[in-house]
């Protein structure tokens, strides 16, 4: 097993067992329920966005596999302090990476540690697991009450 694959597994397991930002934000500016009909994973994403467009707090709750929970945990940590526009750009980069249209080993990204999820592109059934929280994020920013990985 390669060193990067071991690191990927360790990070996924850690964020699954100890998810960061796993809570409800009372009176959140936006929230959106995300659903992956392929496997039944679902989360609700909560966002506090200031008048300046900066995400001051972000969290999630729900049920899902280790990949969807770890992705939500890492995403929520990464987005704090980013603008709504930055979050939308990060969604595109993340989505392009997991479907194989962006290779962080040879192309510049702004994803930081989130590039660990590049390996899911090798398992097409896991792409939607990794992107569930991101679809909920986009739904919340677009003021939708629900989002799906099928969109």
Instruction: Please state the overall shape, judged from the principal axes of the Cα atoms.
Output: globular
- State the end-to-end distance: 34 Å
For the record, the CATH architecture stands as Alpha-Beta Complex
Strand order of the largest sheet: 3-2-1-4
What number of structural domains do the residues give? 1
How is the secondary structure organized here?
Layout: H1 3-17, E1 30-36, E2 41-49, E3 55-63, H2 66-79, H3 84-99, H4 124-141, E4 146-148
Parallel strand pairs: 1-4
Antiparallel strand pairs: 1-2, 2-3
Helix pairs in contact: 1-2, 2-4, 3-4
Description:
Helix content is 42%, strand content 19%. With 151 residues, it is an alpha+beta fold. It has a single domain, classed as Sufe protein. Chain: A (Alpha-Beta Complex), CATH 3.90.1010.10. The protein has a 4-stranded mixed beta sheet, covered by helices on one side. The longest helix has 18 residues, at 124-141. It is globular, with a radius of gyration of 14 Å.
């Amino acid at each position: 097993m390669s060193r990067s694959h071991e690191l990927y597994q360790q990070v996924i397991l850690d964020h699954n067992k100890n998810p960061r930002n796993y809570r409800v934000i009372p009176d959140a500016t936006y929230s959106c329920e995300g659903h992956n009909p392929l496997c039944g994973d679902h989360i609700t994403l909560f966002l506090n966005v200031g008048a300046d467009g900066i995400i001051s707090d972000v969290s999630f709750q729900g049920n899902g596999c280790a990949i969807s929970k770890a992705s939500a945990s890492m995403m929520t940590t990464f987005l704090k302090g980013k603008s709504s526009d930055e979050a939308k750009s990060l969604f595109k980069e993340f989505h392009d990476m997991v479907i194989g249209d962006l290779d962080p080993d040879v192309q510049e990204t702004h994803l930081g540690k989130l590039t660990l999820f590049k390996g899911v592109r090798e398992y097409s059934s896991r792409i939607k697991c990794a992107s569930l929280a991101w679809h909920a994020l986009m739904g919340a920013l677009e003021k939708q009450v629900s989002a799906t990985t099928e969109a």
